[in-house]
Amino acid sequence: PISETQDDMEKWVIALEKVVELPLTPQDSKLAALLVSKKSSNSFRLIKR
Questions:
Q1: Strand, helix or coil at 9?
Q2: pTM summary value
Q3: Could you tell me which residue ranges the PH domain spans (predicted)?
């Protein structure tokens, strides 16, 4: 998703933080590992600004 406004961006950040706080199940961990391995490291650079 591309946030068009600062307000949109803040809503996405809050939503993502809630998701990140949830404990991962083994299935989630496997899925996350698959997704991360498919993505380039560019997505992590965007998050770590």
A1: helix
A2: 0.36
A3: 1-21
